[in-house]
Amino acid sequence: MQSAARVVIVGGGFAGLWAARALRRAPADITLIDRCNHHLFQPLLYQVATAGLAAPSIAAPLRHILRAQRNVTVRLGEVTDIDPAGRVVRVHGERCPYDYLLVASGVSHAYFGHEEWARHAPGLKTLADALHMRARFLSAFEHAENSDSADVARDWLTFVIVGGGPTGVELAGTLAEIARHTLKREFRRIDPRTARVLLVEAGERILPAFSPDLSASARRQLERLGVTVRTRAPVTAISATRVGIGAEVVRARTVIWAAGVAASSLGRSLGVPLDRAGRVLVHPDLSVPGHPEIFVAGDLAAINGPHGPVPGVAPAAKQMGMHAAAAIRARLAGQPSAPFRYRHQGLLATIGRMAAVVDLGRVRLRGLPAWWFWLLVHVYFLIGYRNRLVVLIDWADAYWTYRRGARIIVGATRPPP
Amino acid sequence: MQSAARVVIVGGGFAGLWAARALRRAPADITLIDRCNHHLFQPLLYQVATAGLAAPSIAAPLRHILRAQRNVTVRLGEVTDIDPAGRVVRVHGERCPYDYLLVASGVSHAYFGHEEWARHAPGLKTLADALHMRARFLSAFEHAENSDSADVARDWLTFVIVGGGPTGVELAGTLAEIARHTLKREFRRIDPRTARVLLVEAGERILPAFSPDLSASARRQLERLGVTVRTRAPVTAISATRVGIGAEVVRARTVIWAAGVAASSLGRSLGVPLDRAGRVLVHPDLSVPGHPEIFVAGDLAAINGPHGPVPGVAPAAKQMGMHAAAAIRARLAGQPSAPFRYRHQGLLATIGRMAAVVDLGRVRLRGLPAWWFWLLVHVYFLIGYRNRLVVLIDWADAYWTYRRGARIIVGATRPPP
After folding, report:
1. What predicted TM-score, i.e. pTM, was given to this entire model?
2. A378: Cβ–Cβ under 8 A, 6 or more apart, which residues?
3. Chain A nearest CA to B57, separation (Å)
4. What ipTM score was computed for the predicted complex, to two decimals?
5. Closest residue by Cα to residue A246 from A261, A260, A231
6. Residues of B in Cβ contact (< 8 Å) with A77
7. 3-class SS string, B373-414
8. Closest residue in A to B53 (Cα–Cα)
9. Which of A7, A366, A372, B217 is the most buried (most CB within 10 A)?
10. DSSP H or E segment with residue A189
11. Distance CA B294, CA B7 (A)
12. Cβ atoms of residues B294 and B68 within 8 Å
């Protein structure tokens, strides 16, 4: 009997988890390693950050998802290093050897060389980020209410979101809705409806991956919600109380970073060519130059599809994960691996209540139909019926009452800085 | 026109919130101050700690609850000091004057002079405590799975709960169920069913406030779930890897503190007589000796009911809060205030699936009927229909599948200490 090949998968996101599942009948002994104990439904992370959903509603324990797949061992830990020559990854210094390796450790946010901005302008990649952001923006209204100075209160009520991609658009629209509707009547000294939400984008238009007419529609929908959209507006400085936008200085005490991503540092430890953002330039079959036994999938992989680079979205990560699994299965069977073919499934971004844009190529939706489409797709793809049910209840509640079910700041508050 | 009296309420728990609501028609200008932005449904906190419920399911923003009551201002902040002579409380150093004051800042856990135990044996009073405890016990199974030493794995799979009151009983029963059922089949190197759960109580019996036959029943129900119950077993030492129980030393890497409470330090700043636990010895009308304008309610107040001291439970806190509000209304109307009369509504403790004890005085329930009674009461008293619905879904899911909906460790893991 042939002994099972050792397959190590780094990362339990869409790429890593879908790869592990696609290997369920392979003669492989799989180890899935993740820093977190859960798979995260990242497309709804902004809703945890904006107090619409509880953290457990968009996360499921990796062990639980994979409990019945007996050829997978889930290991909670951080991969600190990869040694391609020795065919070993290190987890907290411990050696974990492999015959085949899939690196799917994704991306985190990048500040384009301004790492000092990180403390003033948190980004959104993990549940911890989301809970931190939630506490920050909820506390801003509290600080405004507590402030004796009208100027300081106004600074606390100014929110700047940097980056006009889907995450920035979603955060800006939701924050505007919360200020206008959710918090209405709840404060005594401030009027939350006077809050300003600025969405700042360095490029020509927001949602640049969408068609220009949908970008323009998204902008109008945001403006209807009360968001000020600024394009061709590069951020030049961020401090605790100010944001430099071009030559102008805006006073704001809450800045959110939704602008740039940088690939996981594990890409570097492979010793292979990377693109500017640190992503691994993979072969057509997603393997790595010089190492046919190493694959990269998901946001960490740089590869072109039929219409330019494959975008960093969940469907692309799933497709790559499944393709890498198929390539490993082919290798195990002594067959050649096929090139990865990206099937574009469209782009979606939600803006707020009944406001969204959907770009399916020939079909483009905006406003209410786009919003319904977005909603159905996201509920459908959530893992676990319990999560689907709870998310639907939270959304229905938010829809009818404008309430947000998770307006909880965990821990005691401190006086404003 | 008479100008409104300034009423300051410290604490948005059951006592403070019910007092604020009971003053809704009073000619008063009320400020409710809390360190947290939410009212917490403390009776279900252990379910957040044991991954059964998400934090937002048992908490609601104080501002939201009180939004329509125009004579209340909610202030997020920590009262650092009370000056009864100057009739002022200080919030982060800022002065907040009052004509009437209600102190309802509750209790936190106490280690009986062994404050060094706090880092090894966390307690459970706030949502932050609950999320910390959740991460601790979920990580214990992960550390056991990752360990190369059978001895170390066994230490990680030993859980000691100190204190046989309702919280200790609830935590012990739930942990045993999780180890036996929820995590079954999810690990590859350890068998979670071999986990040991020890409930350690210094006194004669667990649940000492209940009748002796219910204590005995609770013990039997716990033992059926696999919990080892040790009574007359005082804890003498706690370190990262060991617990001293009487003369014996038990190796365990997860210790949970459910043993003692100490009153909020604000009681001391009133300069009036306190009991041994630091609670304020109040007058029969809940006012404070020498200060008819200051009231204390909830867990911080020490007062006797018809059958001994009024217990530190939610119904007692609500009753005291409403009584203090009535006393303030009486003062405002120039009338004398009545003495507080505690109406005992019974004691409930849940143990696990279909296991509970209910002591209503003449009526005593155990097992399945007690569990149903407990469930209905707790869902009924939860604030907000959304929370009720979501909690019911989570419980139904847990009941049918043994799953726990909130098995999420937020943040990255570190290697074991």
Report:
1. 0.92
2. A43, A44
3. 8
4. 0.89
5. A231
6. 146, 413, 415
7. HHHHHHHHHCCCHHHHHHHHHHHHHHHHHCCCCCCCCCCCCC
8. A56
9. A7
10. none
11. 10
12. no
